[in-house]
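thread from #wetlab-drylab

HS: before we spend reagent money on co-crystallization trials with magnesium ion, can we at least see a predicted complex? here's what I'd submit
DV: go for it
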Amino acid sequence: MTEVVQTPSQPGTQFVPRVFSGIQPTGGLTLGNYLGAIKRFVDMQASGIETFYCMVDLHAITTPQKPDDLRRATRELAAGYLAAGLDPAKSSLFNQSQVPEHTQLAWVFNCVARMGWLSRMTQFKDKAGKNREAASVGLFAYPNLMAADILVYHATHVPVGEDQKQHIELTRDIATKFNHDYGVDFFPIPEPVTEGAATRVMSLRDGSKKMSKSDPSAASRINMTDDSDMISQKIRKAKTDPDALPSEASGLNERPEARNLVNIYAGLADMTVDDVLADVGGKEFSVFKPMLAELAVSKLSPIAAEMARLMQDTAEIDKILRQGAQNARTVAGPILEKTYDIIGMVR
Ligand code: ATP
Ligand code: MG
């Protein structure tokens, strides 16, 4: 279990440890989202710290979304959270758009963050592609909303995959600048929590690319709703090299596809890469891939089945999210009010 420590923003000041994270309801959930994020959310829920987990629907619209698809993806993401073990009695589960304090604080942060900071964000460069002029303003300002998502709860710990570390760094810069500019010690400086063997799950087709919901190739990712045959087939066809597995992690250097499959095995089995290689070192992929497929099916199938069951009663999902939003607002409301007070808004 992650040991959670208090993170003073300045020596002598302590914030109550609190966890926030979110996932975009765009497309289906992938194995990358599961190992890099959701599985970690469940671990942190067990730590006894207050946990807030969000469907970040307002982030989703930074790229075009069909309204009905977005609604469905939001409920399916909530079903994924619940099926993987998040418990509404222990964690606040809600949609970002149901807690207006996120966007209210984001406006304040639009006025704290600098254009130069946001111009350096690799996610913006990747997602905007060559035609930056045509990207939405929202895609550019996205990290400010993400900072607000976190800081509106005074969250101190943010479980995320590797790819989000740069955005957490920006969140820290925003909190630091706000505190400095207004001479306060109001926002904590949050820590990214990226731990375990699978903080960056790679595409099954190309070991140099992140596994992503938005990759056009369906064979590049395992979806949490894939059935057993589909999971086995995708693992069987995953790109590898001709060599047998090494007995030590150093033997995976320069072998990105082999490393990825071992990392996935370790993530699913809650083992270290060294422990996995101690067991499977020397085996050919023709032997290892069926072992990995069996493990993946045993871990993911029960979650997929539970997601399907939950999706039959979307009214129940909506009720859980409304309740979660109410909870969240009792924390976010006073923090936003205090922010407004600090910056000089007449209340
Ligand atoms: P998109 O490609 O549309 O950005 P995504 O799969 O990256 O989708 P996000 O909603 O952006 O999903 O990310 C949700 C969480 O999942 C984040 O914490 C992110 O770091 C994590 N995550 C996403 N992909 C991976 C991956 N391949 N490996 C590990 N963690 C991942
Ligand atoms: Mg992403």
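DV: The longest strand covers residues 18-23.
HS: ok that's useful, forwarding to the group
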